[in-house]
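Reader question, answered in our methods column.
A reader sent in the components of a multi-part assembly and asked whether the whole thing could be modeled at once rather than chain by chain. We filled in our standard form and ran it. Here is what they sent:
COMPLEX SIZE: three components
ENTRIES:
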Amino acid sequence: MTRYSQIAGEGRDASDLPVWRSADTLDLAYIGYGLLIVALVLVSYVLGVFNWLPHDPEQIRFDLLNAPPGSAGHLLGTDFLGRDILSRLIVAIQAYFLPGLVAIVISLMVGTTLGALAGYRGGEVEVLVTYVNNLVDSFPRLVLILLVIAAFKADIYYIMIIVGVTGVPVVASLVAGKIAFLRQKHFIEAALVLGLPSHVIVLKHILWYHCGPLLVIRATIGMGEAILIETSLSYLGFGVQEPMPSWGNMVQAGANYFFQGKFWPSTAPALAILLTILGFHLLGDGLNSILEDRGGK
Amino acid sequence: MTGAPLLEIENLRTYFYARSKQAFIRAVDGVTLSIARGETLGVVGESGSGKSVTALSITGLVSAGPGVISGTIAFRADGVEHNLLQDLEQYVRLKERDGRIVEVSKDEPGWRKAVERLMAPVRGKEIAMIFQSPKSALNPFARVGDQITEAIRLHTRAKNPGEAKERALHWLERVKIDSPRLRFDNHPYGLSGGMCQRAVIAMALASEPSLLIADEPTTGLDATIQSEIVGLLAELKAEFGIATLLISHDIRAISRLADNVAVMYGGTVVEHGPAPDVLAPGFAPKHPYTTALLASIPSVQNVRDKGYLTVVEGEVPDAVDLPRGCRFYARCNRVTDDIRDKCAHHEPELKEVTPGHHVRCWLSAE
Amino acid sequence: MKLSALRPVTLVLSRELALTALLLLGVSFVVFVILFLAPGDPFSVLLEGQMPSHEARAGVREALGVPRTWYVQYVSWLGNLLRGNFGTSIRTGLPVFGEIVRVGLSTLYLTLGSMLVTLLIAVPIALHSSVRGATPLNRPFTLLAYLVSSLPVFWLGYVAIYLFSHKLGVFPLVSAASASADRAWLYSLLPICVLGIGNGTVSEVVRYLREELSRVMAEDYIRTARAKGASVWRHAFKEGLLIPMTEIIASKIPFILGGAVIVEQVFNWPGMGRMAWQAAQDRDFPAIMGIVMIAATLVRLGSLLQRVVYVAVNPRASKQRRGAGWAE
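And here is the structure of the entire assembly that came back:
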């Protein structure tokens, strides 16, 4: 049964309700969950910076190897060196946060610039940008990173630059697509007729008013991608190196004990990855459906 | 016009839901209409009056929710009576307050399944449709001829491909597409708007339906093409006499083709009668809306009489917040003090003023 | 098919082919620049193999007449690539090209299989939600797709090995290389499924297919098809399913290849991914360079194939339309 009900108070003016009143409850739940995850990531970052942790993340205890969750004050148990998993999970955000921001900033800045150029100028500029997009898209991201690692012995920041660059085409396409859409609606002609200069139209009316939500969504997804890439590289042995924890090298290290029936040292970070990426995905999806698809429903 | 009508719609309601306003859009709100065999019924009204939604409701093609929520549609073809909204009640629960529907619960999947079952023997076979903007109505990925052949093979006895193709070519010729053999192999993108509409008409007629629904068949075409299409429809009417529901806001097309005319306003029929009566500007008992609508048509007669064109003052009522009384009250220029109170608060009935001519107005109810 | 209908198609395809060549040229240039900038002069390695000392290298350069300017180096390197001469692997001493061809097939098998798995999961979910509208199963399915896409693939691999090989013993725990021929396909099922589920693209594939299908279902011509009592699927298939499916899969090939690197590592699968990993470990420039070139070529071929399908089914294709990249 689908229920449609009219809100009380007939005869009121038929103006639109605020976004959250008319939004799907589930979309709001998605956004709520996503925001919770974002908040947790931020809080973990701050906790890590000031070293406010339940245990010392690098304290080794040979009497407590691979201890199960809950034992001796270790909420999520300990790893193969008896180190507190929860503390290491929190500290591991350090490995992602700034490098992830680097990746996001690169892909948003370069992507927006290229997208705006392509969408607004059109013609040969668009052809060129499309070519660059396709060129970057030709490289499997992970394989390209392996090449760069081989060439430069790259650390996490180099890797995140590659992640940022390979994230450019998506952003550029989104922005260019949005501008194409606005052009179709004669939005740009209207602005030109009003005598607005190009930079005002592009910066204020197109990017600020119309691409804002889109870029925010992209940024959250970008952080998710940074985490996933680091995880994969850690597994391959090229990510953040021990003893500095990252979720990726924690899963990797814990996985060695998987077949001994000790799941939690790898499952705890794997779940952290799962829940975080899921949060970013759902936040993007929820924001998308209430901010972007609004006209379509 | 003997016996029971071919199509009888009673008190049809089709609502949509504006999520951002949390309110219903009463697109069709209590429409009653009937079409006899061989009759062409013209439906006129401004955009947003519910004409097209009525047509889509008949063939179960309303896709947005909640869609059709109450009413009956009886369709009699081949001696079989179909109730196209049979068992609708079991999928829909309505909650009313102050005589207004304030909540609709609808089992959409169940309803859709039931509609598809009810429509299977009827849609395309007995009731064929012609749509506006013919270029987008044809499948851009298939050849024009194949789309017509498909209808023929689905609904007529010509099942084998060769025979069906011959029939399709016959229909293409019949709707006066030049060099039909060439056009048969064309994809729609290579055809002009007028040719596409001819192809759509051929496709509709090819299944030999008993009712043709033409939903704004001339909208989106050039003016000269419009009159060509109207001319074609008139010829086909004279030749085949298929009962037709012709929806248009082009009153000239309606006056040329229709036997009877229904005037829709705000989701309901406000006047219904023989075309000459309804469309004659001077004819006495008439809904004020029809009068205003007729006065706004750019015709020689109008311009000669007054020297200018009038407009219907005001706006089409917001289907979200329809007035309680007469839907036309806010724009009506013929309200008198005697009936003002009734007009504002009570909706008039559709009342027979002369035989076969119904008007929904307190002026005529006196 | 009429000849007249074929001509614009060949025209479009030859343009696509030219574009593919142009993009691969760009790819080779990017790879060249990375290697050119890399410390340790990988080019002396690439061009001449291992040489003991700088003087010796310089001497060989002189003797072979290898020029110093970068563009001449690029052209001679590109010439070698075009002749299938990707250099010699530092680690094994074998020609890289032959080695890639040998392991490439098993990677192709893995990736194609996993694409099929991804589609087998994503298509039903997308169909269900776009055709049936809002059903109770709609949201859980979508959520499931998101969950699956957020999993780190190697952890999924471990869980799968633990469950199916260790506990249930459904699949053998040996590598494909040592598995007896008749059970090799059974062994390969597990990595294929893991990569198909865990390559991180399921949710995007679902979303793209659902959006495209819903858009097409709302098209006027689908309404016409329904109004004439014809099968909606017959009419919606090309634009609503076939085209978006090839588009999204072609655009996800890089991700699937990236996932293959991980999955091959987890399952000890002798493919290009493992070779890439090994090459990155050893700084085996000729090998990793060859793999990047081949992987990029596969990506471009995938796009080319997608364009072929698009042009073949779409009579309007001679009018240029933007590819899958713009729809994300």
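What stands out: The first helix of chain B runs from residue 51 to 58. Chain B touches chain A at residues 15, 17, 19-24, 65-66, 93, 95, 100-108, 318, 320-321 (CB under 8 Å).
Send us your own complexes using the same form.
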